[in-house]
Amino acid sequence: MKKNKAILCVDDDSTVLDSLKTQLINIFSDEFIIETAESGEEALEIIEFLGRRKIDTLLIITDWLMPKMKGDELLVKVHNKFPRISKIMLSGQADERAIQNAFKNANLAAFISKPWQTEDLVAAIKPLLSDK
Questions:
Q1: Which of 42, 62, 64, 89 sees the fewest Cβ atoms within 10 Å?
Q2: Where in the sequence is the domain holding 72, given as residue range(s)?
Q3: What order of strands is seen across the sheet that includes strand 5-10?
């Protein structure tokens, strides 16, 4: 069966990215492609690339504190260009104003603090994907 739906994880820390990807593969690999990006710029490129391949990115999970483009800025850009993509911020040190910015201007679905519990992450993700 060809999968045509993706979850995109964005974090500049490759250890965090690997851990997150492994958890998501263990839970969702039968249904979704799990993609990763190490920057906001790369994330936007991947969403475009997947779209050209007829793969819908349904969810983006991003860190906040990253070089060049912070997570809230990325989510606002994603929201403006791809409003149907659901958004979760996963961060250990997000600025409160940035979190509020993402909720207000990017339709952020959830904020989860690092280190996260798998159950909390799954509980936030499943309702976002159930109707897509």
A1: 42
A2: 5-129
A3: 33-37, 5-10, 56-62, 86-91, 110-113
- Report residue 125 as tokens: 């993700």
pLDDT per residue, tens digit, the chain (132 aa), is 568 999 999 999 999 999 999 999 999 888 999 999 999 999 999 999 999 999 999 999 999 999 999 999 999 999 999 999 999 999 998 889 999 999 999 999 999 999 999 999 999 999 999 866
User: Which amino acid is residue 15, in one-letter code?
Assistant: T
Q: What CATH number is associated with residue 47? A: 3.40.50.2300
36 to 9, 16, 103: CA distances (angstroms):
5, 11, 22
Q: Under 8 Å CB-to-CB from 126, ≥6 apart: which residues?
A: none
Query: Which residues does 6 contact at the CB level (< 8 Å), separation at least 6?
Result: 32, 33, 34, 35, 50, 55, 56, 57, 58
Q: Are 74 and 39 in contact (CB under 8 A)?
A: no
Q: How many domains does the chain have?
A: 1
